[in-house]
Specification:
Layout (H helix, E strand, L loop, with lengths): L2 E2 L8 E2 L1 E4 L7 E4 L1 H10 L8 H13 L3 H23 L15 H9 L8 H15 L7 H21 L3
Helix pairs in contact: 4-6, 5-6
This protein binds zinc ion.
């Protein structure tokens, strides 16, 4: 299927894929000329949230922990590799993951609340409040068992909180 180049006003065929986001999950389809232009002008901050830009700025200004540095470098290296492959046509785009997958620790955390992977943040909140109330060590009959459950619920909740960026 040939679609038109995504560049506004361009009527050429969109034959080159250009990453829309830094995680490479979405793409523009450009003609060769506009793909080259896009890559040249690719803005490092273009698809970041204000929080991510702040964090990035902080890292650049104050330096970052070595562990974070490794991750950032790895991401950047992968992106640069991707762009190189993109420009030289070496990359097999079909191998790129198209769908967002739910990490296993998130699935496990949702299981604690007896919720499906499609659960919303709101549903998690409702379940969390109900269970936290039930197992709260101060109000429960079986204090030992409740303390264990309470810890488990809270740890799952924290994991999900991070995942949902709350
Ligand atoms: Zn074009």
């Amino acid at each position: 299927m040939i679609t038109k180049c995504d560049h506004p006003g361009c009527t050429k065929a969109g034959i080159c894929r250009a990453p829309k986001t830094r995680d490479l999950r979405e793409y523009w389809m450009f003609c060769r000329e506009h793909a080259a232009e896009y890559n040249k002008n690719w803005n490092y901050y273009a698809n970041m949230t204000p929080d991510e830009i702040d964090a990035e700025w902080e890292r650049e200004t104050f330096g970052i922990a070595d562990k974070d540095k490794e991750n950032v470098n790895k991401n950047e290296a992968e992106y640069i590799q991707f762009l190189n492959d993109f420009l030289t046509g070496r990359n097999s785009f079909d191998k790129m993951p198209a769908k967002k997958t739910v990490p296993s620790q998130i699935i496990s955390a949702l299981r604690v609340f007896d919720l499906p992977v499609t659960a919303s943040w709101r549903e998690i909140g409702v379940k969390y409040r109900a269970l936290a109330k039930k197992y709260h060590p101060d109000t429960s009959v079986n204090a030992d068992k409740s303390a264990t459950e309470f810890t488990r619920i809270n740890s799952a909740y924290e994991t999900l909180k991070k995942y949902f960026k709350k």
